[in-house]
Design goal:
The protein is an alpha/beta fold. Helix content is about 50%, strand content about 15%. The protein is elongated and about 70 Å long. The N and C termini lie far apart (about 75 Å). Its EC number is 6.3.4.19.
Length: about 350
């Protein structure tokens, strides 16, 4: 007789989340990012138990940063994959980096490479409600807008054929720990999680407990809900901004004549933007700069362009970075010409 997996309320919640949010399709190939910690082990066990209902092909991937205190983790995760009879993939960093941002960027690149090489349609990670709360605080401190405050979303595209999915954003870290304890899962205690020189660890170990004690015992839940509300707002505003930008860049007799005379310039009709709410104006101009110059514009740069919507003719911004299209001898700026905001190039 085949032993059926023990079914817990957490199994039911994640199963319903996958159905309700349509995060993962049936019969797909899914790559699970496993660090060895409690969250990724909880996720792997849940998906393994749900596998008979969904018909997935599961595999485990581990990213080795080559950090000195991580010695042994890769072997530990490989043994877990072996015990659960899952394919295992290991990606080792070419060089050691201590930056949180650089390490995170490399992990996603490494996971994408593994998934593309072995035809996986999804990468799933064990990010939780707790991670969502920490990320919101971290980005708020850094001065991020709504986009940054809702950064941990349920899913996003890594490539046209690959989706990153986070099925546990309504599950707390306390719950994943209890789940691992119940099933006696072999958690690897990452010593770097105790290092308070990392900003996220300080938020986790010091700031959130302080807020829970002195302000709101349910602050983690409250912050996660805020992130979820912002996610829907950002999605709506981004689509509205794309529609408005399309109108501002629509082909008219005037724009055709202008483009023929200035084929190397990017332009935006500011008249279309004048009556729009400020929130949409800013988003349109951010999208415009990203498309024109391949940069992630700062708040100050966006504000300079916002001023040009109603500024006198020939008003201009200060120099703008050119991102991937710039050369050492080239700079860019935006200038008003009649109804148009134009990105111009000048040789230094």
């Amino acid at each position: 007789m085949v032993n059926r997996p023990v079914w817990t309320p957490l199994h039911t919640r994640v199963h319903r989340t996958l159905q309700h949010r349509q995060l993962l399709k049936r019969q797909e190939r899914i790559l699970i990012a496993v660090s060895g910690g409690q969250d990724s082990l909880c996720l792997t066990k849940l998906l393994l138990d749900l596998q008979p209902k969904w018909g997935w092909q599961l595999a485990i991937a581990h990213c080795d940063h080559r950090w000195s205190k991580d010695a042994g983790i890769a072997d530990h995760v490989e043994q877990i994959a072996h015990n659960w009879q899952l394919p295992f993939y290991l990606q080792i960093a070419d060089y050691v980096t201590q930056s949180e941002g650089a390490a995170r960027e490399w992990r996603y690149q490494a996971l994408t490479k593994i998934a593309a090489s072995h035809s996986y349609q999804y990468i799933v990670t064990g990010h939780t409600k707790s991670d969502r709360a920490e990320t919101l605080i971290y980005n708020l401190i850094r001065g991020a807008g709504a986009d940054g405050l809702q950064a941990l979303t349920w899913q996003r595209s890594l490539t046209p054929d690959l989706q990153l999915v986070r099925p546990m954003l309504e599950v707390s870290r306390a719950e994943t720990f209890q789940f691992c304890q119940s099933f006696k899962l072999p958690i690897w205690e990452d010593v770097y999680n105790q290092d308070l020189s990392y900003a996220r660890n300080r938020i986790r170990q010091e700031l959130l407990p302080y807020l829970q004690t002195h302000f709101n015992p349910q602050v983690e839940q409250a912050l996660a809900q805020t992130g979820e509300l912002l996610r829907a707002d950002v999605e709506y505003l981004e689509q509205a901004a794309q529609n408005l930008r399309s109108q501002a860049m629509a082909i008219t007799p005037e724009s055709i004549n202008y483009t023929q005379q200035n084929s190397d310039l990017s332009s935006l009709n500011r008249v279309v933007l004048r009556d729009a709410p400020l929130a949409l104006q800013r988003r349109v101009l951010r999208q415009f700069l990203q498309a024109a110059l391949s940069i992630a514009p700062t708040f100050e740069q966006i504000e300079q362009l916002t001023f040009l919507i109603t500024a006198p003719n020939r008003s201009r911004t200060s120099s703008l970075p050119g991102g991937a299209i710039a050369s050492p001898k080239t700079s860019f700026y935006a200038e008003v010409e009649g109804n148009w905001i134009i990105i111009k190039k000048t040789d230094l």
